[in-house]
Amino acid sequence: MIDDRNDLDAAIVQGLAQAVPQVDPPADLRARVLGSIGAAAVSPPKSGFSGSLMWLATAATLALVLGLSLYTGQLRRRVRAVEADLRLADARAAAGEQQAAEAQRDAAAAQSSLLVLTAPDMTLVNLAGQRAAPNASARAAWSRSRGMVFTGRNLPPLPAGRVYQLWVVTAQAPVSAGLLRPDAQGGVSGTFVTPPDISAPVALAVTIEPEGGVPAPTGDKYLVGLL
Amino acid sequence: MWSLLALVVPSWTEDRAADRAALIRMARGDQQAVSELYDRHARPVFSLALRVLQDRSAAEDVVQEVFTQAWTQASRYDTGRGAVGAWLMNMARSRAIDRLRATRIRPDSNLARDEMLDVPDGSALQDLQLLSAEQVSAMKLALDALPALQRIALELAYFEGLTHMEIADRLEQPLGTVKTRIRQALIKLRDSLQALQA
Fold it and tell me: Which residues of A touch B (CB under 8 A)?
């Protein structure tokens, strides 16, 4: 029975051992093993063959099997070595691709942020925590032509089914810039695209909204910063 | 499905009572009992040694050592501990890895034991057990389903006795990544056995 963690570990150890491809040991190994402990004479190998004809046939077969097994043994070792190299190469390639994709995403995000931060029309906005989150704060760099870089901290954890939404508040109506999901420490950062033809903005705000976001703000304000 | 798989998996999980009886006879000096034990377990023992060493001749030497050790230690083996076959397998893996280590250059051979793999090596297991055919089949399926990096890291730890650091070097991966992959692999294998039990 497998009852607890330790027993399971023991089971895994045995499972790994038993899961290896099963290979017959050479026929003469039995006699060598038993001979080494003085048991060979006591226990002849089990065999269904008997008689001189059978011995001749067995000897011929053994010679053939020995030759073949030497050759197949060599081939098997070479195939295993190639397979092992291939699996190592596959693993390295998979890990490399993953790292490359992550690096590419990081580079793209950094490039987007740099474009916003170096925009000639860039405006810095400090957002202050509101009554729902007095300790929260954020800073945003907004460019009409290139979008927004937003970094917030100390945002309260989101309840299930809710998300923070970032708004560019204009004289007409707030325009959604995107959704924010803070990490376990309440930090969040990202680059957002805002419509270049947006009418004169007066403020940035973060509200809490239903998962997926909404076309116009409905929830409490968590962060507000005037432009 | 499992019962069908059980038919095609070697049924060497049987005869446990006969194994225990053979060991008791060996402890009394009955050499015939060794040959019975050999006939039942030489194949899996040889297969495991061959998997570790990738060398038939060296694997044959390990088989010889294992059964010689079983003969000399039969009187000290507590048959209440569990399956004799599992005991033989543990000896085979341990001796095969010792040989592998002896031939490997070990620049960091002073590593503390706790820096080595946390895949249990079986040497200190109190309840030696053999898995049933369906448990082995479930384990094989789970192994096949592991992502390449997890499986290779686990196999390097278990079959080559490499430390996490050595695996990280071999795979050219960060140490933390290697530890995580091995842990994830063990969790999946554990889950596969638990799912079977459920």
Answer: 2, 5, 7-26, 29-30, 32-34, 36-39, 42-43, 46, 73, 77, 80-81, 87-88, 90-92, 94-95
pLDDT in tens, B96-136: 999 988 876 544 444 433 344 444 444 444 455 677 888 88
Provide the pLDDT for residue B173.
86
Are B152 and A77 in contact (CB < 8 Å)? Answer: no
Which tens digits make up the pLDDT trace of A56-93?
776 777 788 777 877 777 787 778 778 877 888 888 88
Name the strands in the sheet holding A174-180, side by side, starting at the edge strand that comes first in the sequence: A174-180, A162-170, A201-210, A221-226, A123-129, A137-143, A147-153, A188-192
Token pair 């950062």 is found at A189
Q: What's the pTM?
A: 0.51
Task: Choose, out of B31, B118, B162, B166, the residue to mutate when testing the contact with A (most A CBs < 10 Å).
Answer: B31
Task: Sort out which chain A residues have CB atoms less than 8 A from B174's CB and list them.
Answer: none
For residue A149, list its beta bridge partners. A141, A191
ipTM value = 0.77
